[in-house]
Amino acid sequence: MDIDIRRITELAVQKKEILNQIELEYEKVIVGQKSVYKYLMMGLLTGGHILIEGLPGLAKTLSISTLAKILDLDFNRIQFTPDMLPADIRGTLIYNQGTGNFEVKQGPVFTNFVLADEINRAPAKVQAALLEAMQEKTITIGDNTYQLPDPFLVMATQNPIEQEGTYPLPEAQMDRFLLKIIAHYPTRAEEKRIISRMGGLHIPEPKKVISKEQVLDLQNFVKQIYADEKIMEYIVNLVYATRDPEAVQIKSEYIRAGASPRASLAFLKAAKAEAFFDGRAYVIPEDIKGVAHEVLRHRVLISFEAEAEGLTSDSLIDQILQRVEIP
Fold first, then answer.
1. Which end of the chain is less congested by CB atoms within 10 angstroms, N or C?
2. Can you give the pTM of this predicted structure?
3. Could you tell me which of 149, 69, 86 has the C-alpha nearest to residue 112?
């Protein structure tokens, strides 16, 4: 195993140079929002999907479209609205009078990067169509099932303030997102740089850094990163603490539902990517802690009692991290 670790470490250091180049191009366009970049890359490298919560105007759309250009990937934005139909996402069959046959018109989900903007504005049937794409990476139109392009990533956005006329995402769909991240306002210094950069005559354009094939190669590399048995046990202990909070001195009535086994898999995938970002070929406990909030915040459902006492899923995750023994 030591020989493998050395070999993979050498590869990690080499391949991290590619990540550095990607980040440099990204920062030519985007000011701040480093966490959005990091977790988008994490989702891409692990084959997962990202749910991002933030107010309008925080460069969410610009972030993913910029990354698509840098990685030479296709990108489509879907604005979710209450009058949408599933066909607006997956496509439909159109009758061709010339041939007398029905032909498939593929929807905007047939791409590498999908921005599902304000996902909670669409009704259940539309969300179910997107759910099939996210989980199976296939789309069914008529009697046929079509494979989506590889790589495939959905970044869905939610506005945390304006909830009128929205459809809350069902727990089953929330669970399909690898991570949930929060986009914050820029600092004063960052905002000054934004208006200086974007308010002039020449708006910066990112350059392509790698190809689609190289992206797939990075995905395969991340899977090779080593996680020890003790790391696996730490992950399971954290996830079980959300299901049995009394075991870590948290009132059971605070948590309506804990995390599913998908959370354990998300922990492992995200922690491997976190190790890669650090140029390592093995996972350490700090990698697990570093992604805990993003992995668990949408999977730990808190009760009204917890809310009444000013608790949030993030504050309960903090308590779990403090009380679960680190290997």
1. N
2. 0.89
3. 149
